[in-house]
Amino acid sequence: MSNDDIPTTNMNQRVPVSIQDEMRTSYLDYAMSVIIGRAIPDARDGLKPVHRRILYSMYEQKILPGGAHRKSATVVGDVLGKYHPHGDASVYDAMVRLAQDFSMRYMLVDGQGNFGSVDGDPPAAYRYTEARLSRISMELLADIEKECVDFSPNFDDRLEEPNVLPARIPNLLINGSGGIAVGMATNVPPHNLGEVVDATIHLIRNPQAPIEELMRFIPGPDFPTAGLIYGRTGIEQAQRTGRGSIVMRARMNIEKAPGKGERELIVVNEIPYQVNKARVHAKIGELIREKKIEGISEVRDESDRDGIRLVIELKKDVVPQVMINQLYRMTDLQTSFGVINLAIVAGRPAVLNLKETLAVFVEHRRDVVTRRTRFELRQAEAAREIVEGLGMAVTDVDKVIKTIRAARDSEQAKADLLKLPLVGLEAFVRRAGRPESEIESAKARGEYFLSERQAKAILEMRLSRLTGLEQEKLAAEYGELCNTIARLSAILADEKLLFDVIVMELEEIRTKYADKRRTEIVASDADIQDEDLIQEEDMVVTISHAGYIKRTSTSTYRAQRRGGKGKIGMEARDEDWVTQLFVASTHAYVFFFSDKGKVYVKKVYEIPLAARNAKGRAIINFVGMEQGEKVAAIVEVPKIEEGKFVVTLTRRGQIKKSELTDFENFREKGIIGVKIEGDDQLLSAALTDGEREFIIATKQGMSIRFDEKQVRATGRATMGVKAIELVDDDAVVGMGVTQPDRPYVLAVCEKGYGKRTNIEEFRSQNRGGKGIILIDASERNGPVVDITLVKQGDEVMLITDRGQMLRTKVDEIRETGRNAQGVRIMSVDGEERVVGLERLEESSADESAEGGSMLPPAPDGGGEPPSQNGGENGSPDGDGGAPPASTLN
């Protein structure tokens, strides 16, 4: 249809409109209606329209504090009929929230009856409950009749309602707000009134004060349900930007279980804001039934009118703090409050920081007090006009009475009074005790003519006002009105006096309503670290040639005698064997370096826990390694901090040092740790403090020792520099980092031989040389497998390609010179070969000994007969006749 075919009428003309434009315009109109008219609070009084209408309706109906409670249905009906044409549920629900002490930090409605509970119980119907305004809500409505705020017509233009309440208190901050509009939401936490008032006064006195100063007055939200705020980061972010996430925690106390011996109770006395206690109770019971939490025997709710008391009874020997951390992690006893400080400012939604929020309130109070002062000034001037006219009539009473009596009616009397010159102004002002300047001004005026309002007041005046006492009262009232007018005029003329009034009223509010902070702010990291849920202990981490990983408690392995066959440490097949072993705390970081130079970061407790003879889990699935990668080195990192370095070494002798903090922003899919070129492979990695020395060993028995300062720190994605000059088909097999308490170098060869040599026998050289002999890599010994630095009291683990593991004390390996061949440490059969060496801390040995007694030599643990072993000094067991050593079971 063309435009010409569109029918028209005399009343209007149909105009074609694009449906896209119409939908856009209509939806924006609807969205703004929801934003402004329903869901988002006004930044000035902190109220949404429905809350404002409820309070104003109750004020109009005189349902005031100190008076009788009225049925909630009365309030709901009045609000619906006059101001809020929506469902009754929306009005009653809003009213209920204003009366809940667990929802509002300072309740605005004083409810009587069932207004719901912290367990999520619904309120009774509005025909059963009663309500009245609370004392503090009167501070929101104070002076509303003094023309200090704008009014607008209601929905049917019969009445008028306030656009905003005068609000003597910064209600948006002290009670908070929450709501979801179209395309935006608000979530403002409640705060402590005393703290907010102090910050507001400081801002009035110091308008240029930075947010940091205001934050000293308002340390953070103060929730009606008390509890804890865990960490300050979210608070500071919210106060600076208007957005942030605040971690809330329940307050838990540990008590002794009465009559149950050493058993303990965890008692929850305070819960996070807006958390349903009954649901928390049910959730804990569900976790117990599903055995996701072990160690709790019973949970019961002993709450009463005196407060919350959720009792969690622990089983015997359960550590309460570990259980508390698990409850925080798995239930709503820890939750977060997402702050979105969105409010309506000048008719538009805006996200406000702390200073902006207070500034909007201060500007609102400035406007309210200015308009109120002007209103009071007008009222005082009008009252003074009447009193002045009555005073003149009393002073010249004979002339006034004569004029009135001569008139035929009241209208005539009024007209005659307006023409009547009076001369008693000077006497009246003098009687009122006014300053000499006002008396002189009255004298200068001479004749005084009445206004219409004064003439009308005189005609309505009682004869009793003509008595001497009443004349004195008129004079005193006149003087008081003059003083009031002078004070109000001064306030309007001087902004400082205006703000003094605002401050004085805020101080009165603080005196009347301020209370102690309920919510405690705990200065700590807001996140519960996973290791808080894990008991700290040492774990043996084993890596197989085929790329399987597991962790096993060191107590699983018991000590045996040196020279034994050992026990199975991992189930191994013909094509797989254990290649690496590492001991670390469950709480430590573990850096997994692949042979390609990438780094994958995990915590020890994340490594799958398995039995001693279990295969473990494929690393490629555990850490997300790429196809073809293998774990080349594992580094335990207690924490990532400055002043520490990660040193890596490749099989071709390239050494590189990088700052540990360069690895701080690790990713799940790994990051580049070192650049690897050609067919080279990463071999080893270590954590240092920049003050160490390195001793590096090669397969053919060579070694080099040099200072760490010869390796300068570079970025992660670099190759590094040459550590040792390799010859023929030689390759690097291990690296030791010097420690003050580890004076010995322990080297182990493939056929189970090794030796312990003092590190001082290896002179320090410059990096990049060919080095000196470490051990004779003869046919008897085989190629060198690895080296480690040890001290007396240490134990070491040896691993073969068939999965055999042996643990022995370093003290039982006799110290020899650098040129010695070494002694037999572990017996290997046929083609079996040693593939790994790992030093164990002395403390680990002690802990493992507790897991089982120190065993005598087992029938299969004695290895080959001594006469078959041979030794460098011709002794039967190759160690000069040293006594047998204990080894790993």
TrEMBL record:
Cite the Topo IIA-type catalytic domain residue spans from the record.
40-533
Oligomer status and interactors: Heterotetramer, composed of two GyrA and two GyrB chains. In the heterotetramer, GyrA contains the active site tyrosine that forms a transient covalent intermediate with DNA, while GyrB binds cofactors and catalyzes ATP hydrolysis.
Top-rank EC class of the record's enzyme: isomerase
Region Disordered, as annotated, extends over 838-889
Q: What EC number(s) has UniProt assigned to this enzyme?
A: 5.6.2.2
User: Where does it live in the cell?
Assistant: Cytoplasm
This protein is called what?
DNA gyrase subunit A
Q: Which GO terms of the molecular function aspect are on file?
A: DNA topoisomerase type II (double strand cut, ATP-hydrolyzing) activity
What does the miscellaneous comment read? Answer: Few gyrases are as efficient as E.coli at forming negative supercoils. Not all organisms have 2 type II topoisomerases; in organisms with a single type II topoisomerase this enzyme also has to decatenate newly replicated chromosomes.
Instruction: List the catalytic residues.
Output: Y128 (o-(5'-phospho-dna)-tyrosine intermediate)
Q: Name one Pfam family in it.
A: DNA_gyraseA_C
Cross-referenced InterPro entries, in alphabetical order? GyrA (IPR005743), GyrA/parC_rep (IPR006691), Gyrase/topoIV_suA_C (IPR035516), Topo_IIA-like_dom_sf (IPR013760), Topo_IIA_A/C_ab (IPR013758), Topo_IIA_A_a_sf (IPR013757), Topo_IIA_dom_A (IPR002205), Type_II_DNA_Topoisomerases (IPR050220)
Q: Which CDD domains does the UniProt record give?
A: TOP4c
Q: What does this protein do?
A: A type II topoisomerase that negatively supercoils closed circular double-stranded (ds) DNA in an ATP-dependent manner to modulate DNA topology and maintain chromosomes in an underwound state. Negative supercoiling favors strand separation, and DNA replication, transcription, recombination and repair, all of which involve strand separation. Also able to catalyze the interconversion of other topological isomers of dsDNA rings, including catenanes and knotted rings. Type II topoisomerases break and join 2 DNA strands simultaneously in an ATP-dependent manner.
User: Locations of Gly residues compositional bias?
Assistant: 871-881
Q: Which reaction does it catalyse?
A: ATP-dependent breakage, passage and rejoining of double-stranded DNA
Give the residue interval(s) assigned to the motif GyrA-box: 560-566
By sequence similarity, the record places it as follows: Belongs to the type II topoisomerase GyrA/ParC subunit family.
Please state the protein's primary subcellular location: cytoplasm
Q: Which UniProt keywords apply?
A: ATP-binding, Cytoplasm, DNA-binding, Isomerase, Nucleotide-binding, Topoisomerase
